[in-house]
Amino acid sequence: MSYVGWILITGALVGISCGLIGVLLILRRMAMMADAISHTVLLGIVVAYLISASLQGMTMLIGALFAGLLTTWLVQWFESKGIHSDASIGVVFTTLFSIGVVLISTSVGNVHLDVNHALMGEISFIPWNVIELPIIGDIPLAVVMLTVVTLIVVLMIGLFYKEWKITTFDPALAVSLGIPVLLLHYVFMTMVSITTVAAFDAVGAIMVVAMLITPAAAANLWTDRLLVMFGLSAFFGAASSTIGYGIAIWLNTSISGSMAFATGLIFLISYLVAPLYGMISRLTRKRTVI
Amino acid sequence: MVSVLSSPNFQWVLMSTILLGLAAGMVGTMTHLRKQGLMSDAISHAALPGVMMAFLLSGEKELLVLIIGAAISGLIGAYLIQVIDHTTRIKEDAAMGIILSVFFGGGIMLLTIANRVGGGKQSGLDSFIFGQAASMVRSDAVIMGLIALLVIILIALFFKEWKVVLFDPNHANMIGIPVKVYQSLYTFLLVFVIVIGIQAVGVILMAALLIIPAVSARYWTNSLFVMFILSASIGGFSGGFGTFVSTFGRNLPTGPLIVLTSAALFLVSLVFGSKQGLLNTYKQTNLIKKKRNVQVQRGDLE
């Protein structure tokens, strides 16, 4: 596979996994929680690196998992102590992120992990960091990791589809049916954390937010059906990473920045022309009512 | 080390970050009471493309020009969040996520382009992401300090009006306070504080300087006036102390250190705060339990 091919596949996998998770994030109104986790994952990765002195996929994944769960738990704990969720998210993620940045710039800096890498990712290096798999041959490590994570996400959503649906749309009913709502909440946050860290290498911690929220929000304007929304969101995510790569080559600029920007373009188009909840159809529908 | 501390440039920078912290603490109090903490996060991320655009258009790293650019794109971001929230089924938190990530992505694109075409003048633009007080010169500090001072004065001067507008906009309307004017003024104050803070604290963490001091102050008082003073003091101290510590290391970013200082003060407030602090709440629940036990022993309760 060619160099560009691997980059496009990596981008598409980020788009698909984030797009799928994003749907649940949007519908559960936890978009800003994703923003928080995408920042605090940095701390998990730095601490994992300090402990194990390696930047291998597995250690990073575990570190990020802990960071994600810690964030979720802290935010909930502060909320239970009477701080408004908005403020508790703000306090928790900025503090944990600051610890991560200070750790990087004092002790780990300049090794393999620097702050810019963490923020923007290095998708252009991904095709060179390969591992050899039986039968298939050389494959970039990031692609393997993203494929595994995407499969986990698809599997988790598919297996518990009904549970996700009920806990998302009617938590009270879910409780009365005996569905473990809190457990599902933590499972979901774990999924957000793994997806974030898998995408971290490719698009950077901050750009993950764009991939998580924007394609799903755009899909939300096109349909009322959950299944269709999942499909559309994954498609928008993959499409914006491809378009973003095109823009980056065209303008000779940051790839991850362009990918985030491209999600915005897709959202703008959806905002204008989506047949169900877009601007144009909203305006014309008003006229027919009158 | 000593030479750094006694250099006039450092003293100016220190003074300006203290003023920034004071102003951010005051505006943050209003932000906190309006439950808009994350809105400030979105606005500060949205300011990044404005900074870069201003640099690319003017070709100079003049702080005042960059600040104006930042303010414009921050305001556009805030406006777009409102538009998405009001005209679609998408909720405010998702709208904030969209704007902050897409604008930030645009900012990074422009930063990369600026790094390519800037011809050396662009060095230091990176510091707008994490904040680097060391990259500030005296004129930057003066501009920052003056705007912060203006914000502080505007809040102090109309304190009574702000109070009514914050807690009871309807009543404010009735007694003839132009609520709409104050609410737009608030948005401008918020954007001002954010854009002057981004060079010292950085766009990613600027929101923390608005959120954390106000949340901490809330643990000590129920009075708005005291909350303003406390929040401003916590902000001012964090700004000053963080800047001070960041001069010790060669590439210590200022923003995270300021945030960690205020986070430490938050922890102290959380545990020892006289209003709903953990220790106090624990004591009170214990007291209630003890009273109850005594009553049970006396046979007042079953």
**Rg of chain B (C-alpha, Å):** 22 Å
Largest sheet, strands/sense/barrel of chain A: 2 strands, antiparallel
Helix content of chain B: over 70%
Strand content of chain B: under 5%
In round numbers, the mean pLDDT of chain B is 87
Beta-strand portion of chain A reads: under 5%
Rounded to an integer, what's the Rg of chain A over CA atoms?
Answer: 19 Å
How far is the first residue's CA from the last residue's CA of chain B?
69 Å
Order of helices and strands of chain A: HHHHHEEHHHHHHH
Q: Helices and strands of chain B, in N-to-C order? A: HHHHHHHHHHHHHH
- The helix content of chain A is over 70%
Main pleated-sheet profile of chain B = none
- CATH top-level class of chain A: Mainly Alpha
- Any idea what the shape of chain B is? globular
Total DSSP E strands of chain B: 0
| Parts with pLDDT < 50 across at least 5 consecutive residues of chain A | none
Q: What is the number of helices of chain B?
A: 14
Family (chain A): Belongs to the ABC-3 integral membrane protein family.
Protein name (chain A): Metal ABC transporter permease
Keywords (chain A): Cell membrane, Membrane, Transmembrane, Transmembrane helix, Transport
Pfam family, one (chain A): ABC-3
